[in-house]
UniProtKB/TrEMBL annotation:
This is Coenzyme A biosynthesis bifunctional protein CoaBC. GO terms for molecular function: phosphopantothenate--cysteine ligase activity; phosphopantothenoylcysteine decarboxylase activity. Keywords: Decarboxylase, Flavoprotein, FMN, Ligase, Lyase, Magnesium, Metal-binding, Multifunctional enzyme. It comes from Apilactobacillus timberlakei. CTP binds at residues 103, 113, 147, 161, 165. Catalyzes two steps in the biosynthesis of coenzyme A. In the first step cysteine is conjugated to 4'-phosphopantothenate to form 4-phosphopantothenoylcysteine, in the latter compound is decarboxylated to form 4'-phosphopantotheine. Catalyzes two sequential steps in the biosynthesis of coenzyme A. In the first step cysteine is conjugated to 4'-phosphopantothenate to form 4-phosphopantothenoylcysteine. In the second step the latter compound is decarboxylated to form 4'-phosphopantotheine. Its EC number is 4.1.1.36, 6.3.2.5. It catalyses: N-[(R)-4-phosphopantothenoyl]-L-cysteine + H(+) = (R)-4'-phosphopantetheine + CO2; (R)-4'-phosphopantothenate + L-cysteine + CTP = N-[(R)-4-phosphopantothenoyl]-L-cysteine + CMP + diphosphate + H(+). Its cofactor is Mg(2+); FMN. Binds 1 FMN per subunit.
Length: 223
């Protein structure tokens, strides 16, 4: 239903959607990652395609199959994802950053598989670059949407992310429970822009939330 009503909303728009959880390698067989399934980003890619957009899906590892109408760029690490976004950002109208990007990566990569030795192993981590913050520096008139995954002070934290990452819209979701959010088929979100909370959803499918998001974006961009 909303699929039909959304058709043409993003006709001719070039949209980058990121999805999945990045992997930061420790050694040839190990990495640091997170519970992201990619479901939210893949659903957004579908919704944007149904709305007539030309979609580039930049995906960290996910078990899902990408929409065959999307241009799929598969990446592993946060650094790979940042490079892929930068390669495509200038020729895009909208960036929707649904990926769960690792905040830290190992300071050094071991070329050889790490052998078990001592009782404790310490892996030193350093911050990854904040992709959205880097993108904000090169942004012209692209419409940029971020996600905020929070377990506490949802609205407060989300609003501050919207501001300091210079976003046009933010989708805030509470990831403390297991009924919604990471890995779930459903989500419950607040849509926020620089005027404040736009709307709050109930527990809805990621398809429905994606269609709502596409509609809200289309109302806020120049046609
Ligand atoms: N993000 C990013 N680059 C990172 C980390 C996150 O671009 N290195 C993006 C995510 O894709 C998301 C938004 O920033 O769209 C918010 O991610 P989130 O993890 O909620 O916030 P952080 O800024 O990483 O802060 P924290 O995890 O400490 O809450
Ligand atoms: Ca984070």
């Amino acid at each position: 239903e909303s699929k039909l009503s959304n058709s043409h909303l993003l006709e001719g728009k070039r949209v980058i959607v990121t999805a999945g959880g990045t992997r930061e390698s420790i050694d040839p067989v190990r990495y640091i990652s997170n519970n992201s399934s990619g479901k939210m980003g893949y659903a957004i890619a579908d919704a944007a395609i149904n709305a007539g957009a030309d979609v580039t899906l930049i995906s960290a590892p996910s078990k899902l199959t990408a929409n065959d109408k999307a241009r799929l760029i598969s990446v592993n690490s946060s650094e790979d994802m940042e490079n892929a976004i930068k390669d495509n950002f200038y020729q895009s109208d909208i960036l929707i950053m649904a990926a769960a990007v690792s905040d830290y990566k190992p300071v050094s990569y071991s070329d050889q598989k790490i052998k078990k030795n001592d009782d404790n192993l310490f892996i030193k981590l350093s911050r990854t670059s904040d992709i959205l913050k880097e993108i904000a520096k090169i942004k012209s008139d692209q419409f940029v949407v971020g996600f905020a995954a929070e377990t506490q002070n949802l609205i407060e934290n989300a609003k501050s992310k919207l501001q300091h990452k210079n976003l046009d819209m933010l989708v805030a979701n509470d990831v403390s429970g297991d009924k919604v959010g990471f890995n779930s088929d459903n989500n419950k979100v607040y849509f926020i822009d620089n005027n404040g909370i736009i709307s709050q959803t109930g527990i809805e499918s990621k398809q429905k939330i994606s269609n709502d998001l596409i509609k809200l974006i289309s109302e806020r961009i120049d046609k």
